[in-house]
Amino acid sequence: MSESIYQPPKEIVSHALIDADKYQEMYARSVNDPEGFWGDAAKRLDWMKEPTKIKNTSFEHSNVSIKWFEDGELNVSVNCIDRHLPDRADQVALIWEGDEPGNDEHITYAQLHRRVSRFGNVLRNMGVKKGDRVTIYLPMIPEAAYAMLACARIGAVHSIVFAGFSPEALAGRITDCKSTVVITADEGRRGGKTVPLKANVDEAAKHALGIEKILVVENTGNEIAMKGGRDIWWHEAATGVDEFCKPERMNAEDPLFILYTSGSTGTPKGVLHTTGGYLVYAAMTHEYTFDYHDGDIYWCTADVGWVTGHSYIIYGPLANGATSLMFEGVPNYPDASRFWQVCEKHKVNQFYTAPTAIRALMGAGNEYVEKCDLSSLRILGTVGEPINPEAWNWYNDVVGKGKCPIVDTWWQTETGGHLLTPLPGATATKPGSATKPFFGVQPVVLDPQSGEEIHETAAEGVLCIKDSWPGQMRSVYGDHERFVKTYFSDYKGYYFSGDGCRRDEDGYYWITGRVDDVLNVSGHRMGTAEIESALVAHNKVSEAAVVGYPHDVKGQGIYCYVTLMAGEEENQDLKVELRNWVRKEIGPIASPDHIQFAPGLPKTRSGKIMRRILRKVAENDFGALGDTSTLADPGVVDDLIEHRENR
Ligand code: ATP
Ligand code: MG
């Protein structure tokens, strides 16, 4: 692992919202006096009724219950829109950048208010009431934001399904949360291609239970089938509809949304988030993690189909009155310069993306970055997977020119917002480490066998959280037992993240991968992230995934899937070279038993490597690959099976 440490640049520290001393002081208060700390934090929102009860939470296995601000009342859309109108009606709330360069739109807070209100009234006219579930299956167009905020305005619970998902995956999610209304578009656009969204919904409707109405936004204008009595055009339903929509009074613990996890480790879970705590946490983390100042242009490249899009494109930024950029396209269309062109065009100050995109753009070559003017960039962020130090350094040197702190944010759909992250003006960073906890977050490292907390600073084991924070999920929708079993049963009294980690002598946290993926080779426990990072550090390797398989002598053997940089030749000599490389980087214990060259790796639609499938392939067990509905390209798996290493 990398030894380097980067101090926050002076220019950042001098203007930062939080510096190192303030972080220490606020962190101490947040854990010693959570009621006081979060009671004050709640004041960042406008409440219809101020909360007097702040925290009421229990991780006790027999009685898991999480409530924050439980007697408070508020409306999320009012907090994200209406309350900004007196001061910033004409400020841009959303910059929309289309799939085709040149296609964009600036939406002010005043416009957002009118459009969301109209959307809310359309939904109300369709019979949608407080508490009803609405499935949103939209591309990254402004209507996706309007639909989310309109649901929040009228108290409906949205469940967004990423528009790249198949009809089967969509049907499963519609049925699971019993939603009777689906909002979609005729088609979506991504990377110069169209996606048949309405046709997918039609297909899903054959399998899903209970769909009554489908609201269709006209986007590409291409011909689609509409079914009388069920399908409604948005523009027809919105004609003549009032531009004021009375916001629903919501209790802080009323549901805001359901979102299914990415399915990296198993069948997706319907994660339930509620109103008050979630918004306090999303807003506060957005402000401090990105050191967001009034007037900054902030861009998170995620899709609203993921939690990152919920918390850090829509709810956090808009609650803070920010200008948030929403991008319809992909990193490599029309070419690998697109992200950087968009940064230049809109003078982006904070840029937040995923390691999968960073690795891909690193593989494409520096010239795509260097031809753009990135001088507006101040903060860079990453989320979704451990970031290999190699990719971190490239992000820092080539994109940030060594001037932009990198915030490596570790969190989950379940956590609502960042749990481990540097703060730009406060935390020295180490490439590959998510560094330190956010306010109110008490991470602990447990011994995986005994379940005991390891108190020494330097530790390795299972990452759990000791006490609740306001953004925490409240339940698995419709299945509280699954919630308790998944997160509170293996390690009693703690929230179990499912991830493994190492804490170094400075108290920095390093995510080593999923606990399910941890290798045990001849009695040595190893995270997949470390071996993968060693492989990616080799100049011919662009991506790597490592899994274990049963080994007669060692217990588990190490099987590596390696994607080479463009133009590199796959041959036996290179396998030997890579094996020696890993031995040298980590040690003989980590020496790969098998290396398979893989032009593509199985990834979820959000770009995460699905190691559970790779494990099955390495184990020669192709019969039971498990839930593959969230896989981006199922064809990759056949190719891997065909070219697997014989054992
Ligand atoms: P499922 O829970 O269905 O298997 P998932 O865990 O991929 O899917 P998400 O909630 O989207 O669903 O992802 C959260 C996980 O992503 C974390 O538990 C962690 O494994 C990984 N992750 C996210 N951010 C980081 C990061 N900065 N560093 C390391 N790992 C990260
Ligand atoms: Mg998970």
From TrEMBL:
CDD domains referenced in this protein's UniProt entry, alphabetically: ACS
Binding positions for ATP per the UniProt entry: G384, E385, P386, D408, T409, W410, W411, Q412, T413, D499, R514, R525
UniProtKB keywords: Acetylation, ATP-binding, Ligase, Magnesium, Metal-binding, Nucleotide-binding
Domain AMP-binding enzyme C-terminal: 530-608
Catalytic function, reaction form: acetate + ATP + CoA = acetyl-CoA + AMP + diphosphate
Broad EC category: ligase
PANTHER family associated with the record: ACETYL-COENZYME A SYNTHETASE, ACETYL-COENZYME A SYNTHETASE 1
Protein name as catalogued: Acetyl-coenzyme A synthetase
Native species: Maritalea porphyrae
Gene: acsA_3
